[in-house]
């Protein structure tokens, strides 16, 4: 039976592409593009297109589906407990756009158990582990849940006395800004301290709509962060990245992480060298506001953690540090 991929229809009608090769990719990795995100595409192959339109290269990649061992580090379904004091909780399997580079690509469109069915077990695990002081709601996209369900999850977390902070990881401000309603903000606001990390990858994603969505969240007292992924052909360029980081600050979003691509199957065509990431970091540091500078991190295979990578700037000769400044000058600094 032929699967119908209606998500490709607007691409066919607007850009006249041949859907056949892409349908083969969509059979394996589902396609979903929100109308807002689709409207940001200017031409085939541009940075928005690359993030959401399937590419036949997705089928030619032989990496592992789960290099970060998230499934092994999962004590109950949907919960990832890798670090001592915090957990990631996958509360939704839906997204408004299925990003082609997603690190949880293995899960997208799979017939996974309903996250709702394992919710009680996850809550019991968190309640039974007093060392957990930080819960990160992820997915999928947690903001794809209906308001009432989200409210219920947040309320059940907030009664756990040892839980200090709640973080929400969501791409909704970027791909579905209309989801950030005043009603949603009123719900989130009841559960402070609550942080939201969103996911902008390119300056073209900062639109009046996404800026307004971020404003509504920030006005509800929610500190906003951003986690970008370094993507070949999208943002692997110091000038693009500098503009992105500066514009994020202008919409009250603080850059948090720049992720080196994980070695996830089906995403190899987005991978850049680590040298490229280091070059971008060197172009940011000192040249623009320190607040515009994210940590560039590699999430090590096997669940060993996120490790920041910095441009080499310090050499030690005995007690003397030879420090290279952002302009390339070498300055001696005496340690005690
Ligand atoms: C990224 C991640 C976290 C959060 O890491 P922070 O550095 O605290 O933002 C927690 N658990 C898992 C499994 C993660 O991948
Ligand atoms: S929104 Fe996040 S979880 Fe969903 S497809 Fe994109 S990167 Fe993956």
In short:
By secondary structure, this protein is α/β, with parallel strands linked by helices.
Folded structure, characterized:
It is a single chain. The chain is an alpha/beta fold and 336 residues long. The protein has a single domain, classed as TIM Barrel, CATH 3.20.20. Helix 6 runs parallel beside helix 8 and helix 10 packs across helix 11 (274-284). It is built from eleven helices and twelve strands. It has a nine-stranded mixed beta sheet. Helices cover 29% and strands 18% of the residues. Strand 2, helix 5 (119-128) and strand 3 (134-138) form a beta-alpha-beta unit. It is globular, with a radius of gyration of 21 Å. The structure holds pyridoxal-5'-phosphate (PLP) and iron/sulfur cluster. Pyridoxal-5'-phosphate (PLP) binds at residues 80, 82-83, 86, 88, 136, 306.
User: Helix proportion of residues, in percent?
Assistant: 25-40%
Q: Would you identify the regions where 5 or more consecutive residues have pLDDT less than 50?
A: none
- Strand percentage: 15-25%
The figure for the number of domains is: 1
Give the bound compounds: pyridoxal-5'-phosphate, iron/sulfur cluster
Query: Looking across the biggest beta sheet, what order are the strands in?
Result: 1-2-3-4-5-6-7-8-9
Count helical runs: 11
Question: Quick one: CATH class?
Answer: Alpha Beta
CATH topology: TIM Barrel
Number of strands: 12
What's the CATH H-level homologous superfamily? Aldolase class I
- Give the helix/strand class: alpha/beta
One letter per element, helices H and strands E, the order comes to HHHHEEHEHEHHEHEHEHEEEEE
- Architecture, according to CATH? Alpha-Beta Barrel
Average residue-wise pLDDT: 94
- End-to-end separation in angstroms reads 73 Å
Shape: globular
**Radius of gyration over all CA atoms, rounded:** 21 Å
Largest sheet: 9 strands, mixed
């Amino acid at each position: 039976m032929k699967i119908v991929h209606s998500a490709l229809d607007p691409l066919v009608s607007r850009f006249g592409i041949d859907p056949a090769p892409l349908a083969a990719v969509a059979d394996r990795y589902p396609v979903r593009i929100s109308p807002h995100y689709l409207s940001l595409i200017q031409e085939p192959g541009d940075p928005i297109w690359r993030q959401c339109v399937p590419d036949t290269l997705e089928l030619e990649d032989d990496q592992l589906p789960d290099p970060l061992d998230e499934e092994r580090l999962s004590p109950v379904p949907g919960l990832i407990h890798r670090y001592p004091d915090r957990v990631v909780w996958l509360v939704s399997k839906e997204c408004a756009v299925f990003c082609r580079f997603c690190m949880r690509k293995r899960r997208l469109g799979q017939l996974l158990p309903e996250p709702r069915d394992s919710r009680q077990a996850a809550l019991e695990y968190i309640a039974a582990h007093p060392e957990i002081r930080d819960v990160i709601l992820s997915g999928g996209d947690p903001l794809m849940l209906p308001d009432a369900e989200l409210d219920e999850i947040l309320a059940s977390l907030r009664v756990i006395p040892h839980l200090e902070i709640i973080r929400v990881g969501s791409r909704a401000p970027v791909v579905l800004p209309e989801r950030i309603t005043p009603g949603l903000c009123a719900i989130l606001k009841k559960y402070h301290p609550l942080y939201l990390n969103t996911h902008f990858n390119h300056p073209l994603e900062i639109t009046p709509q996404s800026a307004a969505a971020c404003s509504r969240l920030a006005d509800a007292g929610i500190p906003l962060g951003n986690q970008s992924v370094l993507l070949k052909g999208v943002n692997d360029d110091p000038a693009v990245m500098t503009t992105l980081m500066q514009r994020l600050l202008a919409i009250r979003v603080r850059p948090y992480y720049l992720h080196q691509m994980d070695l996830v199957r089906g995403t190899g065509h987005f991978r850049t060298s680590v040298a490229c990431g280091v070059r971008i970091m060197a172009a940011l540091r000192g040249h623009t506001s320190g607040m515009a500078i994210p940590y560039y991190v590699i999430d090590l295979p096997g669940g060993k953690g996120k490790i920041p990578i910095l441009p080499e700037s310090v050499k030690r000769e005995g007690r003397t540090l030879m420090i290279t400044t952002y302009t390339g000058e070498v300055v001696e600094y005496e340690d005690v």
